[in-house]
Structure formats: structure tokens, C-alpha cells
Amino acid sequence: MGQKKRARAVKGGGPEAAAAAAAAATAASDISSSTALKESLPQKQQQQQQQQQQQQEQQEEVTFKSLGLCRELCAAAAAAKWERPTQVQQQVIPLALQQLQRLQQQEQQQQQQQQQQQGCVEQHDIIAVASTGSGKTGAFVLPLLQYLLQRSSSSSRSSSSSSSSSSSSSSPFAVIMSPTRELALQVYDWVQALTAAAAAAAPSAAAAAAAAAALRCCCCCLVGGVDFSLQTLTLSRKPSVVVCTPGRLQDHLLRTKGFSVKGAK
């Protein structure tokens, strides 16, 4: 009888044998899953590397010219040692050029009809978020300068120039507002450097002179710590672009006669 009970216990396994079998199965499952994880990690790394390589290749293919910038501004970007457009520039510049082109078409229609029609162009906000040093300034300054160059060249060819009508306006074309004085001065320096390089890159001496004349007084900087009367004198020349801090801009809106930003595009 004792031998039969022992045989039944061995055959049935009992609770201890079942627990041991379950533990062995769990261990085997853990080993197989860890092995599969180890095998999948190199695959994920390879996929990430391939994606990074593809992104780098795409960025290398993109140039300032392919984004739609003119010859002069491509040369200005090269003078600024911007070899390739950054990610934020690739995203912002084409959108900005599209909106400025719509605005230019509206101005041409106004010249043909000899009347002003405000609010006919559908405008969209462009909000770009990028880290410091990623090229945000160039992303909005380069399209802006291209528009000013194109407007200058088109007005010089036409008998009734839009620049003469815009120069009589008290409002600048664009207002670039910076939160601090230091950042405003930095943006102003970039605008001045890019305009000088763009004028120097004109294909002929006449074109260079026209570009220089169009861009010479295109920008002014309104910040604290600078004589207010000198800034007022600069505003009397009706610059196309105003770089400013909020406080000093408010001072000029309140105290400088004839200055307004209501007509800024």
C-alpha cells in the first residue's frame, strides 16, 4: 500500500511539483522575452539612425534658393555664414514669402485700379517656437527684406510707384518688437548686416545702387538709453522697418507727432 501511494504522489505531482513547474515556465518566459528585447533593441537603434540620416540628407538638400529667396538674399545669408537653412527657417520662410506675395499682388491691383482697398488679403499668423541660436531672426527678416527689394524694383519700373505712396505714410511696413534692449539691438544689427550684404550682391552697379538706396534707411531701432530726439529724427525719414522695445515704442506713439503703426502690415 505504501509503495502504491508513493507512485500516485509521483504521478500526480502534488502542489509542490505544480509550483515548481509554474516557476520553471515563468523563468523560461522571462528568458525568451529578455532575448527578444535584446534582439529588438538593435533594430530600434538602426531605425533611429536611418531616420536621422534621412533627416540630415533632406536638410542638406534644402538651400535658401530652394526656399524661394532671391539671389541677393542668398548671398546675404552666405555672408552671414548661414550655410544651410535651419529647421525653423525651412518652415517659416516659405510661409512668410507666400503671404508677402499675396500682399504684393494686392498692391499691384491697387495701382491698376488707382484706389486703396484695405483688408482684401487673407492674412495668417505664423507662430514659430525654437531654441536660442536656431535662426529665428533670419526666418522672418529674410522674407521681409525680399519683399522690400521686390517692391523697390517694381516701383522703379512703374510710373506710379507704390513706394512713393508708402513713403508718404507715417506707418512703417513692419514692426519687430523685442522684449529687451539687448535683443532689439542684436536684431537691428542683423537687419543692417543682411541689407548691406544684399545690396552688395546685386548683379549690376545700377541694381546695387538701387538696392542700397531702397535699404539704406529701411530700418531704425527704438530702445531706451538713446537720445529721444535722434530717434524722432530717424522716424521722420519714414523707415520701412522699426525694431523696438515695447516701452520706447509706446513713448514714440504718445510723443512723436505723426508717428503711427496702424498701417503696418
UniProtKB/TrEMBL annotation:
Q: Where is this region: Disordered?
A: 1-57, 154-173
Q: What does this protein do?
A: RNA helicase.
Show the InterPro entries listed in the entry.
Answer: DEAD/DEAH_box_helicase_dom, Helicase_ATP-bd, P-loop_NTPase, RNA_helicase_DEAD_Q_motif
Keywords attached to this Swiss-Prot or TrEMBL record, sorted alphabetically, are: ATP-binding, Helicase, Hydrolase, Nucleotide-binding, RNA-binding
Composition-biased stretches (Low complexity)? 17-36, 45-57, 154-171
Q: Taxonomic lineage of this organism?
A: Eukaryota, Sar, Alveolata, Apicomplexa, Conoidasida
Enumerate the Pfam families for this protein. Answer: DEAD
- Name assigned to this protein: ATP-dependent RNA helicase
* Entry's free-text remark on domains: The Q motif is unique to and characteristic of the DEAD box family of RNA helicases and controls ATP binding and hydrolysis.
A Gene Ontology molecular-function term? RNA helicase activity
- Family named by the database record: Belongs to the DEAD box helicase family.
Query: Which positions fall inside the Helicase ATP-binding domain?
Result: 117-265
Which EC class is the enzyme in?
Answer: hydrolase
Organism expressing this protein natively = Eimeria brunetti
Residues folding into a coiled coil are: none
Q: Which residues form the DEAD-box RNA helicase Q domain?
A: 62-90
- The UniProt entry annotates the motif Q motif at 62-90
EC number in record: 3.6.4.13
Q: Does the keyword RNA-binding apply?
A: yes
Gene3D superfamilies linked: P-loop containing nucleotide triphosphate hydrolases
Catalytic activity entry: ATP + H2O = ADP + phosphate + H(+)
